[in-house]
Write a structure and sequence with these properties.
A 6-stranded parallel β-sheet has the order 1-8-5-4-2-3, sandwiched between helices. The protein folds into 2 domains: about 140 residues, Rossmann fold (3-Layer(aba) Sandwich), CATH 3.40.50.1970; about 190 residues, Dehydroquinate synthase-like - alpha domain (Dehydroquinate synthase-like, alpha domain, Up-down Bundle). It is globular. It is an alpha/beta fold and about 350 residues long. The chain has 15 helices and 10 strands. Helices cover about 50% and strands about 15% of the residues. Strand 4, helix 4 and strand 5 form a beta-alpha-beta unit.
Length: about 350
Amino acid sequence: MKRILVSREISVPSILKVYKGVVRDLGKILKEHGFDDVVIFYGEGIYDLFGKKVESSLEGIKVLGRFEGKSNRLDDVYDIAFKVPHTSVIIGVGGGKVIDIAKYVGYIRKIPVITFPTAPSNDSICSPLCSLIIEGRRTTVPSRIPFGVVADTEILGSAPESFIYSGIGDMVSKISAIYDLDFEESHSDIKHDDFARMVSEKSIDSLLYFKTSNIRDEEFLGKLVDSLIMSGIAMELEGDSAPASGSEHLISHALDKILPNPHLHGIQVGLATYITVNVQDNPRKDEVKELFDETGFWDFVRKEKFNINAWLLAIDNAPSIKPNRYTTVHVEEMRKEMKAFIKSDEILKTIFVDEVL
């Protein structure tokens, strides 16, 4: 069926504050936007690390409740949503898991949400989607784009390196996703939003043009968060995840269904991107390798165990994740090439291990 795009209303964040020390200005930012009380969701262990910093700035703002985002099972999120007292705003402080919990609670309760990421691990910090566990598997569900994003680059710099590399992997995937947008338009009746495509492309450009080998550099982390924010906005413009999610994400989602303990989302997506851009013969494929070289991504993933048999199966299963799309992984011949590339590429030979599923 041909998809017809019409004029529509979209939401964009009203607050975008990304700089060193912004945690000290959080209360002031809330007051400027008329918020006088708040409910805060913290990731596991995050209150002990940053809770005092966050709440010491909230003078004159009443904290109505604190919740720890332990479970992102859909049923548990529903349960906690109706335990949240009525408040003017919800803040999600932590990584992608608790941010998605806070976003979905806000979506259910129709309360604005501000995300305060402590790790730049993926574009959920500003997307209209959430990743929750449904029937034992990680599943993407709709929510609402956050009212604001507040990110302290000093705090981000203290995140475990795995979460920073996850953010890098999630961002570089836009190179594959944009190729798949064009591929889908050329091989089907589906029409994508040109502005969403442009925003997605600009999101990765701003990161690639900043050269550094220090992933904890505060300016680099600021660029990474800005890119993740733009990626989320591209999804809002499109009305779905297509500008930020192509073959590489489908492979990752298939892995989530195969592996009992999947790797971080952005790590899987980044590695899948390297595979897809080479099979696509993507004109920007060298930029993916160069970014991974510069940032030490390859060295990091070599310390992990990636089961080659799980990945080969995930490539075959990927089209079933979104059968209504037509990306490069939906083409049988390209799936064969992706599996052959995994086995033959010299870099990937140092990363994948042959283990029984």
